């Protein structure tokens, strides 16, 4: 589910019964939807990855880094996975992202950070 909240935060909550990992095709489809929903105006972005089990490869990381700024001014990811933590830290180190990406264990903390920065 993708929505633009009343506080202007773009959110992505995958349907865990149908989605558990990213790939280039999914990232391209999400990019189109995100740009359409935001009318091309980058917003704070929140993704709930608590139930995502797949590992993002370097090609997918490069795609995200190249296109994140088209819909996001900063990004908060909700996760409880130590593996995702390692991947995001690797992403931040390797790609020096154009859009700051920060991890959170709860939605409340993620939203608070997105609204404050």
Provide a compact summary of the structure.
By secondary structure, the protein is α/β, with parallel strands linked by helices.
Can you describe this structure?
This protein is α/β, with parallel strands linked by helices and 117 residues long. The protein has one domain (2-116): 2-Layer Sandwich (Transcription Regulator spoIIAA). The protein contains 4 helices and 5 strands; from the N terminus they run ββαβαβαβα. The protein has helices spanning 24-37, 58-67, 82-95, 107-116; strands at residues 2-4, 10-12, 43-48, 72-78, 100-104. It has a 5-stranded mixed β-sheet, with helices on both faces. β3 (43-48), α2 and β4 (72-78) form a beta-alpha-beta unit.
* Shape field: globular
Order of helices and strands: EEHEHEHEH
Number of continuous helical runs: 4
Can you tell me the CATH superfamily?
Answer: STAS domain
Give the helix level as a range of percent: 40-55%
Per CATH, what is the topology? Transcription Regulator spoIIAA
Mean pLDDT: 88
The number of distinct structural domains comes to 1
N-to-C CA distance: 24 Å
Low-confidence stretches: none
Structural class: alpha/beta
Strand content: 15-25%
Q: From the coordinates shown, what is the CATH architecture?
A: 2-Layer Sandwich
Would you report the number of β strands?
5
CATH class descriptor: Alpha Beta
